[in-house]
């Protein structure tokens, strides 16, 4: 007789991943990599929530390759992420915002996926307890990946070159991408290439519980998320775009501005409410601030899976072939109609 259901059909990330594996959507190795990433995010969530208590706020006293003051939690989060990926035994190469170059994982014994990640994005917000997040993308190894033969790559050893070649893949090659937002809730958002799913951490028993399936971003939305402090340094056509958003127009209602200075928080709100997030190029930084590999490409994969659009202002972010690990690109991401409209101004 059919088992009487209690109606309490709770799906955790673990049971959801196993179900995807049984359906043949992902293989066992990728399931294990995803589980190790979820484990890392749970540990980082705990560290972030107790930062002030365990004296983990403030700066580490070092500067990373980006030239940014490393926060204590940047360093710890990077170690947590790297250790979880190494111990999964299914990761071959990892590239982190906090590491100068990608590294081969010795412990890899099968699967050898390539994982790119920003272990704690928006960490400058930690001391004020504003949302932060971890962002990741997963590729298959790809030794044949073509990277323009730049001088600094050919000067490297063959192993380092292999690592860089494997990591510099266009976002269109991504197998999976996601982020974990550390906010009023801890929310793990993931796509395996067939829709976007959100899991909320239940602190009662430390599991991510499925809370949203097949998320679809609204086709349009009157919320724009830009740091207008840079307005004077933007191109004229971008200024015109922003000015026009403020015009109340026939509806009498202009767009609303929402910006918390943390990509994961600003993106998650855009994904659920609609609108557009932008980090443009400006006179000070000609390629903008955000990194293609572990910020813009994973977020663009997610937004496209939700029916939205990720652009550098002129082309699809997922079509951009990276030429260096920490390469920056301008990013405009969100509701399709909003990004289409922006691109017309920049054409
Ligand atoms: P700004 C955080 O440092 C970050 O990388 C993103 O998370 C965030 O969207 C952006 O930079 C904020 O930059 O220049 O507006 O402070």
Automatic annotation (TrEMBL):
Catalytic activity entry: beta-D-fructose 1,6-bisphosphate + H2O = beta-D-fructose 6-phosphate + phosphate
Signal peptide: none
Alphabetical keyword list: Calvin cycle, Carbohydrate metabolism, Chloroplast, Disulfide bond, Hydrolase, Magnesium, Metal-binding, Plastid, Transit peptide
Keyword Plastid: yes
Any one GO molecular function term: metal ion binding
Keyword rRNA-binding: no
Lineage: superkingdom: Eukaryota
GO cellular component terms listed in the entry, alphabetical order: chloroplast
Pathway(s) where this gene product acts: Carbohydrate biosynthesis; Calvin cycle
Subcellular location: Plastid, Chloroplast
Domain Fructose-1-6-bisphosphatase class 1 C-terminal span(s) in chain numbering: 217-346
Positions of the Fructose-1-6-bisphosphatase class I N-terminal domain: 12-213
Enzyme class: hydrolase
CC cofactor: Mg(2+)
E.C. code: 3.1.3.11
Main location per the UniProt record: plastid
UniProt-listed GO biological process terms: fructose 1,6-bisphosphate metabolic process; reductive pentose-phosphate cycle; sucrose metabolic process
Similarity comment: Belongs to the FBPase class 1 family.
Subunit and interaction comment: Homotetramer.
Protein name: fructose-bisphosphatase
Natural source organism: Cardamine amara subsp. amara
């Amino acid at each position: 007789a059919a088992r009487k259901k209690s109606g309490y059909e709770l799906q955790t990330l673990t049971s959801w991943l196993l179900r995807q594996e049984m359906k043949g959507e992902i293989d066992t190795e990728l399931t294990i990599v995803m589980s190790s990433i979820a484990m890392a995010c749970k540990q980082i969530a705990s560290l972030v929530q107790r930062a002030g208590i365990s004296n983990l706020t403030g700066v580490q006293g070092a500067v990373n390759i980006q030239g940014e003051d490393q926060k204590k939690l940047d360093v710890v989060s990077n170690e947590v992420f790297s250790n979880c990926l190494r111990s999964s035994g299914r990761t071959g190469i990892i590239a982190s915002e906090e590491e100068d170059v990608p590294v081969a994982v010795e412990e890899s014994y099968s699967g050898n996926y390539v994982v790119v990640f920003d272990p704690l994005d928006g960490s400058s917000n930690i001391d004020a307890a504003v949302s932060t997040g971890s962002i990741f993308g997963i590729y298959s190894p790809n030794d044949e990946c073509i990277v323009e033969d730049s001088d600094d790559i050919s000067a490297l050893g063959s192993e380092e070159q292999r690592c860089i070649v494997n990591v510099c893949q266009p976002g269109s090659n991504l197998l999976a991408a996601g982020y974990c937002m550390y906010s009023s809730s801890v929310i793990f958002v993931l796509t395996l290439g067939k829709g976007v799913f959100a899991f909320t951490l239940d602190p009662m028993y430390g599991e991510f519980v499925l809370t949203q399936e097949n998320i679809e971003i609204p086709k349009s939305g009157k919320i724009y998320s830009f740091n207008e402090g840079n307005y004077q340094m933007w191109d004229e056509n971008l200024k015109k775009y922003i000015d026009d958003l403020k015009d109340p127009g026939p509806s009498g209602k202009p767009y609303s501005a929402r910006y918390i200075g943390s990509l994961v928080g600003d993106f998650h709100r855009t994904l659920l409410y609609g609108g557009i997030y932008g980090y443009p190029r400006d006179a000070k930084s000609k390629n903008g601030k955000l990194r293609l590999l572990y910020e813009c490409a994973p977020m663009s994969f997610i937004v496209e899976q939700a029916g939205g659009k990720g652009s550098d202002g002129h082309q699809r972010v997922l079509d951009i072939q990276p030429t260096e690990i920490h390469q920056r690109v301008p990013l405009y991401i969100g509701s399709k109609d909003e990004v289409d409209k922006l691109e017309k101004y920049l054409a």
